[in-house]
Structures
1.
Amino acid sequence: MKTRLKASPCWILILLLAVCFTLATALQLRVAKRNNPGQSNNVFKLFMGEGRRLFAHEFYVMADVYFHSGYYPSIFDKQESQSDVLGAVRGESDDDEDTTNVDFFGAPKDWIDAFGWKFRLDQHTHLSSGDQREILPWLQLAADMDPQMVQTYTVAAFWLRTSLHNPKEAEAFLREGLRNNPDNCEILFELGRLYNEDYHDANRARNVWVAALRYWRAQSDDAKKSVENKRLYDAMLVNLAYLEENAGNWPQAIEYFEMAKQVSPDPDAIQKRIDEARQKLAEQPPASNAPAAHY
Amino acid sequence: MKFVSKIFAIAGVVIKELYRRKDFYVLFVLTAVITIAAGMVHFFDDPKIVNYLKAICVLLISISALIIAIVMAARQLPAERESRTIFPLLAKPVTRAQVILGKFFGCWLASGIALLFFYFFFAVVIGTHEQSWPVLNYLQSFWLQWVLLGVVTAMVLLGSVVFSAPSSNVTICFIVIVGILLLGQHLNTVALHHSEPLRSVIYTIYFLIPHLEWFDVRDRLTYNWPLALWMDCLLATLYAAAYAGLFLLLTWLGFRRKSL
């Protein structure tokens, strides 16, 4: 007598789900291997394709709008030469009166304009005392929209580590930036600053900055000529020089200062540092003048 | 006294429409779902980040309130005409001015009730995230936004006697209102960049339009700005009342001449 097996729909459904799950786990590995590691996959890419990059800049600007608590010029008003969220990252003091004295709107033109100002913020202020956290969602969104927009990573990391004292998240975000932009010297430079200033790990900072310097030099000649790139090169060299100074590696520090002098906007100040370093070097006993071991 | 009671009797019918139709529920649920979903996202493991949530929620509230006010006001007079209920209404001792005023107050109060629900939701969501309850700021923002909806309602009622179909009225009014909100305050700057006679034309538009952007209070809530002076709010309310009165007068003039 034959026994007929009868499968219930519930068991068939469970079986199909199990097959789907197994296939998904197996295929995921293959897809991940096939994908370019420099390309980020996220929900925005899935739904918007490459068009999402158009919105990245808008989100980045939103971060700057939040940084000004909404006091921000429209396309009809006087514009900023560069966003203030980025200015602070580049070493321009946030307390600097030059940045907050800018009046985007000018005097009211008529009574309607004047009365309208009674309902708007009329002072150029910047977020402070930890409130800078409010710019972060927009920077995260900008990075999601355009993973190749490098300044979103450096700006977010800067505020995370300096104002919010969260170097762990800053490092994670910079590493995400590096995954999406391998060998980017700007992100590496910011990572080096994080190691040096927050973790006080001079060795790791040195290694990262030296790598950043190497990638900077590997760029095309045209790329090296841009003002932004020269500024970055100058900053990397000066930071490396200070690092070597603190470590007592005077010859190396002098070498970095000499290189920085060629691109620095203030070569006299650099020359002064070189003279001081030479003096320190001369004061040292000859045995300690050996070259730094990290090369 | 009878004059006013008739107006509020008509307004009462309009308010009932708010909870009979699905517009408010759909917009409220949509706003709530999007806000709650946005509130569940954590950026950089920092639970104190809340301004983005305020911006999203208050933007959704502004859009929803505008849609409710425009759609509700736009269908009042055409719906009465289409269903022919305008005849028994006017057969009663009710003047056309009372119909217009009743419809206006009904739509304005209904949009106010809807706005109140939205603000209550906003206050609860932000209060639980931020642990602060700036009730006066919410009250002032609510008032200014409700005043804005009053001008919008009067403008759309005027549109409903000018344009033949409610759909065209809704579309045109929505474009005009959003245009005023986005560009109204910049028209004087734009005028300066043009030569005559375009400059005078733009300036005339600038001085003629109701400056609804004064009442757009989203930034006040998002960036925690201090309260605006109550005297300025009162002056702005008078300004809005003047425009709403003008639009209603024009609506009445148009409606009086219109054959039903």
2.
Amino acid sequence: MKQLLDSDLELVVESNFIYLPLLFDPEIENEIQTVFRSKKQIENSVKPDLKTIIKVKDKYFVKALNLPSLLENYEVINAYDYKRLRNDCLLKYQLTDEVDGIFLDETLKIILFQIMPHFIKKNSGLTRKKFNDKEILDLINRKINIPARYYKNAETFKNLAPLKNIIENLEIQTPVFKPPGNGILTGRKLRDWFHNAVQAKILKSERHRIAKSLKVREQFNQTKPEHIAILLYISDMGALEIDGFGFTRHNSYKGEYFVYKRTKEFVLTDYYARSYLFPECSVAVSTYLPFRPFVMEKYKHPFLLGHKSGQEICLKESVPSSELSAKNVIRTLEEGITALRYGYDCRRRNGYHSLDRTWVYIPTIDFEDYRI
Amino acid sequence: MDLLKNIKQKRSKQKQKQPFKRNVFNLISSIVKQYHLKKSFLDILDNVEDDLSSKNLNLTRIRVKAPLDSPLFSLASKDQYSLTMSIISNVDNPYLKFAHSPEEIIWCKPLYRLNPAMDSEKLMRYHFRTLYLHERAKVEIEKPKPTDAKN
């Protein structure tokens, strides 16, 4: 089927059927001659819809595929191609779940407009000013190099006319696609028509999504294209990082994020006042329970149990909050960072491990490679 | 009783499986498709006799047939079909069904003219050019030499 549509083969479309060039051997030729010799006799008795072989410009074509049936069942016939066409179609109108979801994502709003301003440098010099949402988006736009295609997509997003047109057409029940018209067509031309027809069918099936998307777009119609581009960029990349603060979308839990802050290198001293240089790491907290700080990378520290990624930081006296709010996330992140940088007491050797090897040394995690 | 036996024998023979024989159309059609032959090939076929007379051919080495993957049933597009049928009607001899390449189709006519009674085993095994040169050499040996004629 795919080979057929990708070829330059001449095909005939008649009465909603694709007719393919007839292949010959001596027996088929005899049959054809017999059929077309008696054609005049049978012409009146046979409906044109039921013609199995037709002759167009001295070439014979044989009835092969029913176009409406092919369209109807294309999802099953070629699931991979159907999925690809569907994705292309939804992307063309920016109709993906992520795009609509991102504009209504309350968690993301908290991260972007309440948590992020706490951690990033907003003002130059000594000026202090509280930023509103639009100013924060402007700041992100200045700090992040967003590829041009997201600005183009933002223009598409803001243009409500195509979606309104689709909805209107669906409401007045006009056919979703025009038939290709009878006659000879090349395989590629038929493919183009077929792809358009499949996409029209997909749009019809996505009517509710289009209506929902239209509402969202009307709501955000006054938003600057640059701001929409930022949100589309976040929706696509699933992550953003500015000045060591960032967030990344959780792969398994929809609508959940990891919010993190990178620590710079820091030095801890052991019982004998020897210094250990710890490399930088990202202290993170998830937007779902439990709200405990952890280190994202593979890392070792007296407050971490092992030497691997995603370890919770040991905070003995801290009680984790039970509610997602900007204040709680900021507090948890700061507690995590403070614990790593300043929590270790060389006299008490607190935490899971000691920096120096004690006289009853049991080798667990060793920090000798960090010694300076 | 004899009649009954006779009928039974006939029926058992009819029931026996007959080996499938590829017909000339399937074979030539697959050569046309495999080698992408065009209509100009027919001109070569028409002029093969003239070309042979002008060439000085020597039997240098024995050539073996090239293997050919031909399907059991071949279907051809209209152009390929008309070319295949033209080749079959142009050559029109029983050796054609042993040809495995366009070159052998070309050699088919002269070979048949030189010796129309070759056995199928030779035709299946050796390239038609080799067979043609071999047959021509045989004919030349059998020709009476001018010195013999004097004696």
